[in-house]
Design a protein that fits this description.
about 190 residues, alpha+beta, three-stranded antiparallel beta sheet, 5 helices, about 30% strand
Length: about 190
């Protein structure tokens, strides 16, 4: 087999240094209140590997683009924080606890749960509602790998309860999120 010889400069485009990562654009823009954002996302999502041709928030600022249809993100959460219950229609979401302790919930109401420690892994298949929360005392970090299907905003569907919580915090934010970002039908018939 003929191999490819990358120069140091070419290989530099395939390296992501944690200290240089920035949160996804919507988190830097602070369009919604922190309380609303905490229902939608981990407190800080740091894109690492994005898609070559995907319309996803992960790809807009990832330092590495293109890795066989996979995205990698670091999700940083302060104690007690984690996104609300949601599902991915087509993609697998695989989590590795890099630092801290996280409780993962699954089921239409998040009725099942497991606590994972550092270097433990859980892989959520498509159409399984899931959420997670940092249950440790310090900021926790997850590595999130998304594979399969189409990685775009249409792949994510939040639970109706999240819409109700956002409505109480900011009715305008709920309308905008529903019109431009996500649906709120996960677990409903």
């Amino acid at each position: 087999m003929r191999t490819v010889n990358f120069s140091e400069q070419e290989m530099a485009s395939r390296v992501a240094r944690f200290g240089s990562l920035e949160p996804i654009t919507i988190q830097r823009e602070k369009k919604f209140s922190q309380e609303v954002m905490d229902l939608l996302y981990a407190r800080k999502l740091y894109p690492v590997v994005g898609l070559e041709d995907g319309d996803t928030p992960i790809s807009d600022s990832a330092p590495i683009i293109g890795a066989g249809g996979m995205t990698i993100t670091y999700a940083a959460c302060p104690p007690g924080q984690g996104p609300g219950l949601h599902t991915h229609h087509e993609t697998y979401e695989t989590f590795t606890v890099m630092r801290g302790q996280f409780q993962f919930f699954w089921g239409d109401k998040g009725e099942n749960s497991i606590i994972l420690e550092e270097l433990d892994v859980i892989s959520m298949p498509p159409r399984v509602s899931r959420a997670f929360k940092n249950v440790g005392d310090l900021e926790g970090i997850l590595q999130v790998i998304i594979t399969g299907g189409k990685h775009d905003k249409n792949d994510i569907d939040l639970a109706p309860e999240i819409a109700e919580q956002i409505e109480q915090l900011d009715p305008d934010a709920r309308r905008e999120i529903e019109e431009k970002m996500f649906t709120f039908t996960a677990g409903s018939n």
